[in-house]
Amino acid sequence: MIKVGDKLPDGFFRVKDAEGNAQKVDVKDLFTGQKVVFVGVPGAFTSACHKAHIPLYVENAEKMKGMGVDRIAVMAVNDHHIMQVWQEAQNAVGKIDFLADGSAEYAKALGTTVDLAGAGMGTRTKRFSMLVEDGVVKALNFEPEGGKGVTVTGAPTMLEQLS
């Protein structure tokens, strides 16, 4: 599993560009030479992710960027079509990058997969937040096992870690 001090593994995400075309984006292009707040959520539009986790990142995006963050990115094990619609629903266009890890390949590379088949969701990623500088993890937060909400991976914790 990824830990503080590790370099992010190589990989790709899928996104939709402004014209609605599917694009493959290299992890290196997103993180190299930048200070990035990177958030992983189990799924787009799921209750905690949609109502409690990502809205506070959207609300605090400018504040984080004012603290030296170049990019805020959220990853979920969903396809790029859903991630684009979710980004729009969160009013996050131009504020946060929404990255699709449709087959959980990047979650596997991070070592963050969780089996949510019992809830009908299949393989997903654990809920996390991390501060990444030039591709290296500087701070890392995971919600406690069995947790049902957002306690330590939300924007308030990240704001503390940035100050």
Order of helices and strands: EEHEHHEHEHEEEEH
Distance between the termini: 26 Å
What is the SS-derived class?
alpha/beta
Number of helices: 6
> What summary fits the major beta sheet?
5 strands, mixed
- Low confidence ranges: none
The total count of strands amounts to 9
The percent of residues in helical segments reads 25-40%
- Proportion of β residues? 25-35%
Question: Overall pLDDT, averaged?
Answer: 93
CA radius of gyration is 14 Å
Cα shape: globular
Order of adjacent strands in the largest pleated sheet? 5-4-3-8-9
What does this structure look like?
- The protein is α/β, with parallel strands linked by helices and 163 residues long.
- 29% of the residues lie in helices and 28% in strands.
- The protein has helices at residues 27-31, 47-59, 61-66, 80-89, 105-110, 155-162, and strands at 12-16, 22-26, 35-41, 71-76, 97-100, 113-115, 123-125, 128-133, 136-142.
- The strands form three sheets. It has a five-stranded mixed beta sheet with strand order 5-4-3-8-9. Strands 1-2 form a two-stranded antiparallel ribbon. A two-stranded antiparallel ribbon has the order 6-7.
- Strand 4, helix 4 and strand 5 form a beta-alpha-beta unit.
- The longest helix has 13 residues, at 47-59.
- The radius of gyration is 14 Å and the shape is globular.
- It starts with 11 loop residues before the first strand and ends with a helix.
- The mean pLDDT is 93.
Task: Write a brief structural summary.
By secondary structure, this protein is α/β, with parallel strands linked by helices.
